[in-house]
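Z., the sequence and structure:
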Amino acid sequence: MMRPASAFGMLALALAGAGEGVLSAQAAEGMFNTVRVGGRNYVNVADLARFYRFEGNWKRAGLDVTLRSKWRVFRFRVNNRECFVNRVRIWLNDAPIEARNSLLLSEVDVEKTLDPIFRPWAVRKLPVRTIMLDPGHGGEDRGATGTHRTLEKHYTLDLAARVERLLRAEGFRTLMTRRKDGYVSLEDRADMANSSDANVFVSLHFNSARPSRGPHGIETYCLTPAGLSSTGALTRRFGLGRFAEAPGNRCDRNNMLLAYLIQQGAVGGIQGLEDRGVKRARFHVIRATGIPAVLVEGGFLSNPEEEKRLLAPAYRQQLAATIAAGIVRYARAMKPATP
């Protein structure tokens, strides 16, 4: 049964204007209706294709679906949470499904995952003047240890300093949660962001996993929407207090756009860098921070080949440049439209 559209679902299907298109300011005739399946709301992919101008230019091969427009390519697989927007991997909260003779995407993914990427101009404008960088770990908290006994805490600080210099060169004011090898609690890091005039919070880390020669690449995390399970969760649960809305959820759509632009900059700017995707998590520093916030895992110190790259200053500078470029692109998207 078709259900009335939610507040997001009331978005018009009519588009006006040139370039990437702008939603008509006038009331529209159409809307996203939602279909209730298994206790969740879904949007018909055919409606989505019309709204984002994919209509008439999409194809399906088995479970794989590709939608193309003049500005983007969106690929997904039925029953799989992994999708791609312009070759950047993104993990959906729910896998697309096929039901009632239709392809369906969860409403929350359309609203909080895809729409901020497809229509960055429609994301709430939160102007960026000051950026807080958060070098992970420090002091007694060493973080991950590489195969050559490389300590994560030293390299996150180095990476943050490189990103800071690049952002300052672009005219932004910057703050840091630490500028030396000292311990700062997760609570204090979030408090610093909330008590400052920072407009964006970016936490920088390096990864570790076993087996050491297995995982490699970059991944960028933003906060999981309230009531949903994070990317790494095996099952989805509802009604648990730890899934309630957190301060960071006030910026869900901004968080996703920021994460996407940073991940896009890194995988597009560094040849051979494995794209592990934009993911969802409830790390304290992005959960308790009331401004747009992400956490970047810039590579695996546990992987000998990737560790070797990360130990090279020139490579860390390249990584810093792509992260800074993503932040700058987000800041530009936050500028109010000129009349």
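The radius of gyration is 20 Å. Residues 1-30, 237-241 have pLDDT under 50 and may be disordered.

Let me know what you think.
H.
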